[in-house]
Write a structure and sequence with these properties.
Blueprint lengths: L2 E5 L4 H13 L4 E4 L8 H7 L6 E4 L4 E4 L1 H12 L4 H5 L4
Parallel strand pairs: 1-2
Antiparallel strand pairs: 1-3, 3-4
Helix pairs in contact: 1-3
């Protein structure tokens, strides 16, 4: 399995994705990006835009941005029956 998360230190949206991946036990590589949008060339090369977080799930051929979409993907793909509880805010 090859999953990469492009993230920015201090980004609350990135942190939500990072925490959920850890909760699910999903192994992944983190790529820390520059704070300035204009310097995020690596993110732009892989996703076509400079915003973070960006998730690349090579096994499934998926590259996606926006934390909510990424969380939906993680829940649907890796959480099994846990997805509804997480979305509803239950522990």
């Amino acid at each position: 399995m090859s999953i990469t998360l492009y993230e920015l230190e201090g980004c609350p949206f990135c942190e939500r994705v990072h925490e959920r991946m850890d909760e699910l036990g999903v192994e992944y590589d983190s790529v820390w990006v520059e704070g300035l949008h204009s310097e995020r060339d690596e993110v732009k090369e892989v996703s076509g835009q400079r915003g973070v977080p960006v998730l690349i799930d090579d096994e499934r051929g998926i590259t996606m941005a926006e934390s909510e979409r990424i969380l939906e993907h993680l829940n649907a793909t890796y959480a099994g029956g846990e997805a509804e509880a997480v979305e509803a805010g239950a522990d």
